[in-house]
Design a protein that fits this description.
Strand content: under 5%
Order of helices and strands: HHHHHHHHHHH
Number of strands: 0
Structural class: mainly alpha
Radius of gyration: 28 Å
Distance between the termini: 76 Å
Largest sheet: none
Mean pLDDT: 83
Shape: globular
Low-confidence stretches: 123-131, 226-231
Helix content: over 70%
Amino acid sequence: MARSLSILGVQHAARQEWDESVDRHTEALNRHYNALEREYREAVRPQHALALGRLAQAHLGRARSRPAECRQEDLLKALEHVEQALEQYEGMRKEDRWANRVHEAWTSCLQAEVLLALDASGRPQRADPAVRQTCGRAEAAARRALTLYDELDVRAWRLRFNRARAQAVLAQSYGGRGRPRAKVLRAHEQARDAFARLDAEEPGRAEEELHAIEDTIEDLRHSVPPAQPRAQTAVNRSGKRRKRHQPKPRLRGRQGRQGTAGRRRHR
């Protein structure tokens, strides 16, 4: 029953029916997975963690479909659920390092997307030091997702698509952190090349992501970097001519040898 509700929530998300998707995933978790976790623990934990990630994705999708001023509640819930899922994966890693790598990588990328969406929503707590580091946390999550994908056999089209998505999210985090424009542009170009290869293999499936990242690259290429203020030359207000530095003459003979010995002892 829990798995059926979760799959139904995925189908609602595919049709962008976000309210229904959130309701189905919430029902699967609150009515079934939480009780199953208490009773069976490790046996049901992979499905439980995946359901938490899917619920976070549904909240993120609903937040993106709403006006900017109405997104905060859904984004905070998405962040809460995705962090719960990552805690589950962290616990499962001790038992089997490779069993849930695919879902853990996807969840890490999802965490980066949620953090970037939170940073872009303009929360009133932006002055808080922890919030100022949101893009840094997003960059770390995207890097973790890429590291996990690099440890996997990503010959499958869907896995390579998810890896390209993680690369695009990493590029977005670079821009949010104020990285050099050349580095941000290079990261976006790497994601664009990956999406282009995927679109060539299966035309149409990655077309939306490819066009979106191409538009971002064009905007970056045409944006003018902020002008740096010119350094002001020092002004000598006294009107006196400055003396050039004169090196001290080296001592010869016994005094010079004593000074050299002293410097050697100091070293």
